[in-house]
Amino acid sequence: MSAIPAIDIRYLRVDYGNFVAVDDLTLTVPRGEVFGLVGPNGAGKTSTFRVLTTLMEPTYGEVILDGVDVLEDIESARRIIGYMPDLAPVPTDLKVWEFLEFHAAAYGIGNRSQRRQRVAECLEEVALTDQREKWCKELSRGQTQRVVLAKTLLHRPSVLILDEPASGLDPLARRDMRTALRKLAEGGATVFVSSHILSELAEMCTSLCVMNRGRLLASGTAEEVRQTLGNTERVLTATLLARHEEAAAWIAAQPAVHEVKISGQQVTFNFNGNDDAQADLMEGILRLGIRMRAFEEKRTSFEDILVGVAESNRLP
Ligand SMILES: Nc1ncnc2c1ncn2[C@@H]1O[C@H](COP(=O)(O)OP(=O)(O)OP(=O)(O)O)[C@@H](O)[C@H]1O
Ligand SMILES: [Mg+2]
Question: Does the beta carbon of 43 lie inside 6 Å of ligand 1?
Fold first, then answer.
């Protein structure tokens, strides 16, 4: 694997008049990743993507994709980039294969039979071969998204930039999208994908970053992001066969524990210690000699974390 990162963004800034939409964004993504960009509406995701895909000049900053300086060498950049915009136009009066062959011709891909071959490959990549004869307007939303993704792949881009590709998809269609993206990354492409839904990206991506009001707040694996954003609180529940009051009193006296409640067989409490401390706590309950039937942990959902981020960054 080459040491050159697939995506190298430095000090990127985008202004619309007096408004700063992207503020000092620096980010690198190694090749072969499915990398997520998450942020609430207005965070600056689409603005960032517009610069990366040569559609807009930034106020300041550098963008290098697979070693190509996007702001200097637009022609080369466009050959390596595959961009799926957030509101991709939906074809209606063409069959799936016609739509793709039309675009293959527009990209100047080979002769007729080479284009046919390439379209077949791209349909295979997004698992839509069996829909090739359908009218585009007859496709479901998930299938439409995948046809647009197939179109994005025609010219064999090495960096895919997909703006909210899973928006409006049901869990099954999201899974198909995730499989398609993982496969592309395994084939050597790098995928940069945005969403305002953190949990959606957490399941789709190898790593991700969180942006709000134009600024990068955290990046890394989903777990690292969770930690950077300072959310380590969990709700723990011990299901005990006896002596609940005694157990609750002991738990309440331990560090990093608060809001201890008893409900039936269950003692539930909030805990914001680390993993080691949590293991000690579990062991401590067992040492009391109280029979424990189950021990469960629930994390604050990613959505709650993101809502917290959005609220804490709101202007006064
Ligand atoms: N052409 C424009 N002129 C002026 N302001 C703009 C323009 N495009 C975007 N903005 C502003 O820049 C900010 C970032 O917009 P952007 O579209 O990049 O956000 P986003 O993260 O993609 O949001 P969403 O989740 O809604 O797609 C927003 O406050 C938006 O109003
Ligand atoms: Mg957007």
Answer: yes
- The one-letter amino acid code at 19 reads F
Which one, of 299, 251, 259, 301, lies nearest residue 277 by Cα? 251
Say how far apart CA 7 and CA 62 lie, in whole Å.
Answer: 11
H-helix or E-strand spanning residue 124: helix 112-125
Question: 16-20 long-range CB contacts below 8 Å, 24 or more apart?
Answer: 20/214
**Residue 304: how many other CB atoms lie within 10 Å:** 12
Query: Quick one: which atom of ligand 1 is closest to the CA of 50?
Result: 18
The whole-number pLDDT of residue 2 equals: 54
Q: 28 vs 14, 70, 219, 307, CA distance in Å?
A: 18, 15, 10, 26
Radius of gyration of the chain (CA): 24
For the chain, residues with pLDDT lower than 50 are: 315-316
How far apart CA 82 and CA 91 sit, in angstroms, is 18
Distance of CA 4 to the CA centre of its chain: 22
Q: What structural domains does the chain harbor?
A: 7-228 (3.40.50.300), 234-299 (3.30.70.100)
Q: Is 104 in the pocket of ligand 1 (CB under 6 A)?
A: no
Residue 109 backbone phi and psi in degrees, to 5: -85, 115
Q: Hey, which of 12, 14, 16 would you mutate to test ligand 1's pocket, going by the most ligand atoms within 8 Å of its Cβ?
A: 16
Nearest atom of ligand 1 to the alpha carbon of 46: 22
What pLDDT score was predicted for residue 315? Answer: 45
Tens of pLDDT along 33-71? Answer: 999 999 988 999 999 999 999 999 999 999 999 999 999
Which pTM was predicted?
0.81
Q: Which letter, b or e, does each residue of 237-248 get, where b requires 16 or more Cβ atoms within 10 Å of its Cβ?
A: bbbbeeebeebb
